[in-house]
């Protein structure tokens, strides 16, 4: 399945909405402010099959704009999911990130209507869609350290384990078929990130033929890597290309480009991302 997705994204690199997470975060912040003014507004935005079938069709999409948290905790959630979304898009590309997010939306809609067939009418938000984004980020960057509540340093893999335990407890405690709702996150994650999870656990070799984990980390000889980049540049129409956004000095002649000394390998970044990127580790 992942091979099919990757092939589609390579054939359709312009598919989707660039910087999707930025727009989602802005919409979530707006709805968070609106909710503080009038708490009843969000009740008209959640995914509710009964209401949709009775004419409120905007609920098919409006539920993704409901903030994942409430109160002051929402501010931390906005920053955290904005970071995760931007990093995943930079790593995967716009097409794959959009496919990932909207597949979660479609799965949520299907799950909601399946429950409605069992005469269970529940209101859904995008909580499990964002949770699946978090699991994907942790699979790709398990050793990345973040500041929990902006204070406590902790690696992503430990946060993911805690969330996974909470997630499993939710499935066990909820009655069937209501417990199908959390499975949305697992299903979306499995479709797109099964291989990446195996790589991060060291169970399967990565696509470049190198083992996962520290023992299988790729050793990069800087001079050889630099020479390879120079050969690629000689056959291309640009001299520098940003490793995050893809901008080149041909398309943006006035833009400055620099190489990051903290990244493993030979990676170039534009002036916008030289101090705003996840360091390459291999």
Major sheet summary line = 2 strands, antiparallel
Approximate helicity band:
40-55%
What is the average of the pLDDT values?
A: 76
Please state how the strands of the largest beta sheet are arranged side by side. Answer: 1-2
Order of helices and strands: HHHHHHHEEHHHEE
Percent range for β-strand residues: under 5%
The backbone outline, from C-alpha atoms, is globular
Low-pLDDT segments, ≥5 res: 204-222
Count of alpha/pi helices: 10
Helix/strand class: mainly alpha
Q: State the total count of DSSP E strands.
A: 4
Would you mind describing this structure in some detail?
This protein is mainly alpha-helical. It has ten helices and four strands, in the order H-H-H-H-H-H-H-E-E-H-H-H-E-E. A two-stranded antiparallel ribbon has the order 1-2. Strands 3-4 form a two-stranded antiparallel ribbon. A hairpin with an 8-residue loop joins strand 3 and strand 4. Helix 5 crosses helix 7, helix 6 packs antiparallel against helix 9 and helix 7 runs antiparallel to helix 8. The longest helix is centred in the middle third of the chain and has 24 residues. The relative contact order is 0.09. About 7% of the residues have low confidence.
Write a brief caption for the model:
The chain is mainly alpha-helical. It has ten helices and four strands.
Pick out its properties.
mainly alpha, two-stranded antiparallel ribbon, 282 residues, single chain
SSE inventory with pairings:
Blueprint lengths: L1 H10 L8 H18 L11 H5 L5 H4 L10 H20 L1 H24 L9 H14 L4 E4 L3 E4 H18 L9 H19 L20 H13 L22 E3 L8 E3 L12
Antiparallel strand pairs: 1-2, 3-4
